[in-house]
Amino acid sequence: MSVGGVSLNAMELFASQAFASRLEYLPEIGSTNTYLLEKANDLTWPDFSVVLTDNQTAGRGRLDRSWQAQPGKALAVSVLLRPDGIALSAYGWLPLLAGVAMKNAVASLIAEAEVGLKWPNDVLVSEEKISGVLSELASNNAVVVGAGLNLLQTKAELPIPNATSLALHSVTGFQLDDIAVRYLASFKRLYENFADAQGDAVKSGLMTDVIESSLTIGKKVLVVLPDETEFEGVASGLDESDRNPTHGARILFAEKTRICFGCSGFIAWGYRRRDCLSSATHRPETGITNSYLASSPISFPLLASAQHQVF
Protein backbone atom coordinates (compact mmCIF):
# COMPACT_ATOMS: atom_id res chain seq x y z
CA MET A 1 0.00 0.00 0.00
CA SER A 2 1.55 3.25 -1.10
CA VAL A 3 0.44 6.59 -2.34
CA GLY A 4 0.71 7.12 -6.05
CA GLY A 5 -1.68 4.88 -7.90
CA VAL A 6 -1.64 1.62 -5.94
CA SER A 7 -5.07 0.51 -4.74
CA LEU A 8 -5.62 -0.01 -1.03
CA ASN A 9 -8.43 -0.45 1.40
CA ALA A 10 -9.25 0.74 4.89
CA MET A 11 -7.95 -2.47 6.46
CA GLU A 12 -4.47 -1.46 5.32
CA LEU A 13 -4.70 1.90 7.08
CA PHE A 14 -3.89 0.29 10.42
CA ALA A 15 -2.43 3.32 12.18
CA SER A 16 -5.06 5.77 10.97
CA GLN A 17 -7.91 3.40 11.73
CA ALA A 18 -7.00 3.46 15.41
CA PHE A 19 -8.08 7.11 15.63
CA ALA A 20 -11.32 6.89 13.63
CA SER A 21 -14.63 5.51 14.81
CA ARG A 22 -15.21 4.50 11.20
CA LEU A 23 -12.80 4.85 8.29
CA GLU A 24 -13.25 4.39 4.56
CA TYR A 25 -10.61 4.74 1.87
CA LEU A 26 -12.09 5.54 -1.54
CA PRO A 27 -9.89 4.84 -4.59
CA GLU A 28 -11.65 7.72 -6.38
CA ILE A 29 -14.32 10.19 -5.31
CA GLY A 30 -15.60 13.54 -6.47
CA SER A 31 -15.43 15.14 -3.04
CA THR A 32 -14.83 13.55 0.36
CA ASN A 33 -16.76 16.40 1.99
CA THR A 34 -19.80 15.87 -0.22
CA TYR A 35 -19.64 12.13 0.44
CA LEU A 36 -19.72 12.62 4.23
CA LEU A 37 -22.37 15.34 4.10
CA GLU A 38 -24.63 12.74 2.52
CA LYS A 39 -23.93 10.39 5.45
CA ALA A 40 -24.83 12.90 8.16
CA ASN A 41 -28.33 11.45 8.71
CA ASP A 42 -26.98 7.90 8.88
CA LEU A 43 -26.10 7.20 12.50
CA THR A 44 -24.00 4.21 11.49
CA TRP A 45 -21.50 6.96 10.72
CA PRO A 46 -20.68 8.09 14.29
CA ASP A 47 -18.71 11.01 15.63
CA PHE A 48 -15.19 11.13 14.12
CA SER A 49 -15.95 9.01 11.07
CA VAL A 50 -13.28 9.52 8.41
CA VAL A 51 -13.20 9.28 4.62
CA LEU A 52 -10.00 9.74 2.66
CA THR A 53 -8.65 9.38 -0.84
CA ASP A 54 -5.60 10.20 -2.92
CA ASN A 55 -7.73 10.70 -6.03
CA GLN A 56 -10.35 13.44 -5.54
CA THR A 57 -11.77 14.54 -8.87
CA ALA A 58 -14.14 17.37 -7.90
CA GLY A 59 -12.72 18.82 -4.72
CA ARG A 60 -14.00 22.14 -3.47
CA GLY A 61 -12.17 24.89 -1.70
CA ARG A 62 -13.58 27.95 0.01
CA LEU A 63 -16.36 29.82 -1.80
CA ASP A 64 -16.84 26.75 -4.02
CA ARG A 65 -13.49 27.16 -5.73
CA SER A 66 -12.30 23.94 -7.34
CA TRP A 67 -9.48 21.99 -5.73
CA GLN A 68 -7.95 19.25 -7.86
CA ALA A 69 -4.73 17.30 -8.07
CA GLN A 70 -3.31 14.48 -10.14
CA PRO A 71 -4.24 10.96 -8.93
CA GLY A 72 -1.96 9.78 -6.15
CA LYS A 73 -0.37 13.16 -5.56
CA ALA A 74 -2.55 14.72 -2.85
CA LEU A 75 -4.42 13.57 0.21
CA ALA A 76 -8.07 14.56 0.71
CA VAL A 77 -9.47 13.64 4.11
CA SER A 78 -12.81 14.55 5.68
CA VAL A 79 -13.96 14.00 9.25
CA LEU A 80 -17.61 13.86 10.34
CA LEU A 81 -18.11 15.46 13.76
CA ARG A 82 -21.19 15.17 15.92
CA PRO A 83 -20.25 17.51 18.78
CA ASP A 84 -21.96 16.62 22.05
CA GLY A 85 -22.24 19.28 24.73
CA ILE A 86 -20.68 21.99 22.56
CA ALA A 87 -22.74 25.12 21.92
CA LEU A 88 -23.47 25.86 18.28
CA SER A 89 -21.82 29.25 18.75
CA ALA A 90 -18.53 27.44 19.41
CA TYR A 91 -18.58 25.53 16.11
CA GLY A 92 -16.52 28.28 14.50
CA TRP A 93 -13.47 26.95 16.37
CA LEU A 94 -13.61 23.56 14.62
CA PRO A 95 -11.95 24.64 11.34
CA LEU A 96 -9.23 26.37 13.37
CA LEU A 97 -8.77 23.16 15.33
CA ALA A 98 -8.36 21.21 12.10
CA GLY A 99 -5.86 23.77 10.83
CA VAL A 100 -3.74 23.36 13.96
CA ALA A 101 -3.91 19.57 13.57
CA MET A 102 -2.70 19.73 9.97
CA LYS A 103 0.01 22.20 10.91
CA ASN A 104 1.20 19.76 13.58
CA ALA A 105 1.20 16.90 11.06
CA VAL A 106 3.19 18.83 8.47
CA ALA A 107 5.65 20.16 11.05
CA SER A 108 6.36 16.59 12.18
CA LEU A 109 7.44 15.77 8.62
CA ILE A 110 9.29 18.96 7.67
CA ALA A 111 11.71 20.02 10.36
CA GLU A 112 13.95 22.40 8.47
CA ALA A 113 11.34 25.00 7.45
CA GLU A 114 8.85 27.27 9.18
CA VAL A 115 5.38 25.71 9.28
CA GLY A 116 2.38 27.72 10.44
CA LEU A 117 -1.15 28.90 9.79
CA LYS A 118 -2.17 31.75 7.56
CA TRP A 119 -5.40 32.86 9.19
CA PRO A 120 -7.49 30.99 9.71
CA ASN A 121 -6.42 27.53 8.56
CA ASP A 122 -4.22 27.48 5.47
CA VAL A 123 -1.01 25.64 6.35
CA LEU A 124 2.10 27.29 4.94
CA VAL A 125 5.64 25.98 4.68
CA SER A 126 8.18 28.75 4.20
CA GLU A 127 5.25 31.03 3.23
CA GLU A 128 3.97 28.63 0.55
CA LYS A 129 0.61 26.85 0.87
CA ILE A 130 0.67 23.10 1.38
CA SER A 131 -2.79 22.50 2.85
CA GLY A 132 -6.21 24.05 3.28
CA VAL A 133 -9.35 23.27 5.28
CA LEU A 134 -13.03 23.51 4.34
CA SER A 135 -15.70 22.98 7.02
CA GLU A 136 -19.39 22.61 6.25
CA LEU A 137 -22.50 22.33 8.38
CA ALA A 138 -24.37 19.07 7.85
CA SER A 139 -27.83 18.05 9.02
CA ASN A 140 -28.55 17.32 12.69
CA ASN A 141 -25.96 19.93 13.68
CA ALA A 142 -23.15 17.69 12.48
CA VAL A 143 -20.07 19.17 10.86
CA VAL A 144 -17.85 17.87 8.09
CA VAL A 145 -14.27 19.12 8.23
CA GLY A 146 -12.30 18.47 5.06
CA ALA A 147 -8.60 19.00 4.45
CA GLY A 148 -6.37 18.70 1.44
CA LEU A 149 -2.62 18.14 1.63
CA ASN A 150 -0.19 18.38 -1.29
CA LEU A 151 1.94 15.24 -1.30
CA LEU A 152 3.96 14.53 -4.43
CA GLN A 153 3.37 17.40 -6.84
CA THR A 154 6.23 19.04 -8.63
CA LYS A 155 6.27 22.82 -8.76
CA ALA A 156 4.84 22.75 -12.27
CA GLU A 157 1.93 20.58 -11.17
CA LEU A 158 0.76 22.90 -8.40
CA PRO A 159 -2.17 25.22 -9.18
CA ILE A 160 -0.64 28.46 -7.88
CA PRO A 161 2.94 29.78 -7.80
CA ASN A 162 3.07 30.14 -4.01
CA ALA A 163 2.18 26.51 -3.27
CA THR A 164 4.36 23.60 -2.25
CA SER A 165 4.20 19.87 -1.49
CA LEU A 166 5.85 17.37 0.81
CA ALA A 167 7.96 16.11 -2.08
CA LEU A 168 9.36 19.59 -2.68
CA HIS A 169 10.68 19.42 0.89
CA SER A 170 12.26 16.01 0.30
CA VAL A 171 9.50 14.05 2.05
CA THR A 172 8.97 11.00 -0.18
CA GLY A 173 8.78 7.23 0.06
CA PHE A 174 5.91 7.27 2.53
CA GLN A 175 2.70 5.31 2.77
CA LEU A 176 -0.60 7.15 2.83
CA ASP A 177 -1.18 5.80 6.34
CA ASP A 178 2.03 7.47 7.52
CA ILE A 179 0.63 10.86 6.60
CA ALA A 180 -3.01 10.44 7.54
CA VAL A 181 -2.30 9.12 11.03
CA ARG A 182 -0.31 12.22 11.97
CA TYR A 183 -3.23 14.45 11.09
CA LEU A 184 -5.93 12.28 12.63
CA ALA A 185 -4.03 11.69 15.86
CA SER A 186 -3.51 15.42 16.39
CA PHE A 187 -7.09 16.23 15.34
CA LYS A 188 -8.53 13.62 17.73
CA ARG A 189 -6.50 14.87 20.68
CA LEU A 190 -7.44 18.51 20.07
CA TYR A 191 -11.09 17.64 19.48
CA GLU A 192 -11.38 15.54 22.64
CA ASN A 193 -9.82 18.32 24.71
CA PHE A 194 -12.19 20.84 23.13
CA ALA A 195 -15.21 18.61 23.80
CA ASP A 196 -14.12 17.93 27.38
CA ALA A 197 -14.02 21.71 27.90
CA GLN A 198 -17.53 22.00 26.39
CA GLY A 199 -16.28 24.11 23.51
CA ASP A 200 -14.25 26.52 25.64
CA ALA A 201 -11.21 27.36 23.53
CA VAL A 202 -9.33 28.85 26.49
CA LYS A 203 -9.82 25.97 28.92
CA SER A 204 -9.04 23.39 26.25
CA GLY A 205 -5.84 25.16 25.23
CA LEU A 206 -7.05 25.60 21.65
CA MET A 207 -6.81 29.40 21.71
CA THR A 208 -3.17 29.14 22.77
CA ASP A 209 -2.49 26.59 20.03
CA VAL A 210 -4.06 28.87 17.41
CA ILE A 211 -2.06 31.89 18.56
CA GLU A 212 1.21 29.95 18.66
CA SER A 213 0.57 28.49 15.19
CA SER A 214 -0.46 31.76 13.56
CA LEU A 215 1.68 33.37 10.88
CA THR A 216 -0.87 36.19 10.49
CA ILE A 217 -0.67 37.71 13.96
CA GLY A 218 1.92 40.47 13.83
CA LYS A 219 1.57 40.88 10.08
CA LYS A 220 0.14 43.78 8.10
CA VAL A 221 -3.19 42.61 6.72
CA LEU A 222 -5.36 43.95 3.92
CA VAL A 223 -9.11 43.52 4.44
CA VAL A 224 -11.41 43.58 1.41
CA LEU A 225 -15.12 43.96 2.16
CA PRO A 226 -17.81 42.69 -0.26
CA ASP A 227 -18.34 46.18 -1.67
CA GLU A 228 -14.58 46.16 -2.46
CA THR A 229 -13.85 48.66 0.29
CA GLU A 230 -10.32 48.04 1.53
CA PHE A 231 -8.51 48.87 4.73
CA GLU A 232 -5.41 47.55 6.38
CA GLY A 233 -3.86 47.13 9.79
CA VAL A 234 -1.57 44.97 11.84
CA ALA A 235 -3.19 41.83 13.24
CA SER A 236 -2.08 42.02 16.85
CA GLY A 237 -3.77 39.05 18.51
CA LEU A 238 -6.99 37.22 19.24
CA ASP A 239 -9.84 39.17 20.82
CA GLU A 240 -10.92 37.99 24.26
CA SER A 241 -12.78 41.17 25.18
CA ASP A 242 -16.25 39.64 25.41
CA ARG A 243 -14.89 36.97 27.79
CA ASN A 244 -16.84 34.28 25.99
CA PRO A 245 -14.37 31.95 24.26
CA THR A 246 -17.26 29.90 22.84
CA HIS A 247 -18.22 32.73 20.47
CA GLY A 248 -15.49 31.97 17.96
CA ALA A 249 -12.11 33.46 17.17
CA ARG A 250 -11.61 37.12 16.37
CA ILE A 251 -8.50 38.98 15.33
CA LEU A 252 -7.55 42.31 16.90
CA PHE A 253 -5.90 45.09 14.94
CA ALA A 254 -3.24 47.27 16.52
CA GLU A 255 -5.05 50.31 15.07
CA LYS A 256 -8.11 49.43 17.21
CA THR A 257 -10.05 48.26 14.16
CA ARG A 258 -11.47 44.93 15.20
CA ILE A 259 -12.10 42.32 12.52
CA CYS A 260 -13.84 39.02 13.07
CA PHE A 261 -12.43 36.37 10.78
CA GLY A 262 -14.68 33.52 9.73
CA CYS A 263 -13.31 30.04 9.86
CA SER A 264 -14.22 29.25 6.27
CA GLY A 265 -10.87 30.74 5.37
CA PHE A 266 -11.93 34.28 4.65
CA ILE A 267 -12.76 37.15 6.96
CA ALA A 268 -16.35 36.15 7.20
CA TRP A 269 -17.51 38.90 9.54
CA GLY A 270 -15.44 42.02 9.31
CA TYR A 271 -16.81 45.03 11.08
CA ARG A 272 -16.14 48.48 12.39
CA ARG A 273 -18.81 50.16 14.49
CA ARG A 274 -19.47 52.78 11.85
CA ASP A 275 -20.07 50.08 9.22
CA CYS A 276 -23.44 48.41 8.86
CA LEU A 277 -23.31 45.95 5.97
CA SER A 278 -25.42 42.83 5.86
CA SER A 279 -25.79 40.85 2.67
CA ALA A 280 -25.38 37.22 3.71
CA THR A 281 -27.91 34.73 4.97
CA HIS A 282 -26.79 34.06 8.53
CA ARG A 283 -27.83 32.04 11.56
CA PRO A 284 -26.29 34.02 14.42
CA GLU A 285 -26.84 31.28 16.97
CA THR A 286 -24.50 28.97 15.05
CA GLY A 287 -22.18 31.26 13.13
CA ILE A 288 -23.10 29.33 9.98
CA THR A 289 -23.51 31.12 6.68
CA ASN A 290 -24.26 29.52 3.33
CA SER A 291 -23.29 26.13 4.83
CA TYR A 292 -19.78 27.33 5.63
CA LEU A 293 -18.62 27.63 9.22
CA ALA A 294 -17.74 31.10 10.37
CA SER A 295 -17.09 32.61 13.74
CA SER A 296 -19.39 35.47 14.61
CA PRO A 297 -19.45 37.88 17.53
CA ILE A 298 -22.91 37.93 19.02
CA SER A 299 -22.95 41.53 20.21
CA PHE A 300 -21.80 43.40 17.11
CA PRO A 301 -23.43 44.25 13.76
CA LEU A 302 -23.28 41.50 11.17
CA LEU A 303 -21.21 42.24 8.11
CA ALA A 304 -20.97 40.35 4.88
CA SER A 305 -17.97 38.19 4.14
CA ALA A 306 -14.60 39.67 3.32
CA GLN A 307 -11.22 38.44 2.17
CA HIS A 308 -7.83 38.93 3.70
CA GLN A 309 -4.37 39.06 2.28
CA VAL A 310 -1.08 39.07 4.13
CA PHE A 311 1.49 41.30 2.49
Please outline the helices and strands:
Blueprint: H1 14-17, E1 22-25, H2 32-37, E2 49-53, E3 59-60, E4 66-67, E5 74-81, H3 93-109, E6 115-118, E7 122-125, E8 128-137, E9 143-150, H4 176-196, H5 206-213, E10 220-224, E11 230-238, E12 251-253, E13 258-260, E14 269-270, E15 282-283, E16 288-289, E17 292-293, E18 307-310
Parallel strand pairs: 1-2
Antiparallel strand pairs: 2-5, 3-4, 5-9, 6-7, 7-8, 8-9, 10-11, 10-18, 11-12, 12-13, 13-14, 15-16, 16-17
Helix pairs in contact: 3-4, 3-5
Detailed description of the structure:
Helix 3 runs antiparallel to helix 4 (176-196). The protein is globular. A hairpin with a 5-residue loop joins strand 10 (220-224) and strand 11. The strands form four sheets. The chain has a seven-stranded mixed beta sheet. The chain starts with 13 loop residues before the first helix and ends with a strand. 48% of the residues are buried. It contains five helices and 18 strands. With 311 residues, it is α+β, with helices and mostly antiparallel strands.
Keywords:
single chain, alpha+beta, seven-stranded mixed beta sheet, six-stranded antiparallel beta sheet, 5 helices, disordered N terminus, disordered C terminus
- How many β strands by DSSP? 18
What is the CA-atom radius of gyration, in angstroms?
A: 18 Å
Envelope shape: globular
Low-confidence stretches: 1-8, 256-311
Overall mean pLDDT stands at 76
- Distance from N terminus to C terminus (CA atoms, Å) equals 41 Å
Total DSSP helices? 5
Secondary-structure element order, as H and E?
HEHEEEEHEEEEHHEEEEEEEEE
Largest sheet: 7 strands, mixed
User: Portion of residues in helices?
Assistant: 10-25%
Physical arrangement of strands within the biggest beta sheet: 1-2-5-9-8-7-6
- Secondary-structure content class: alpha+beta
Q: Quote the beta fraction.
A: 25-35%
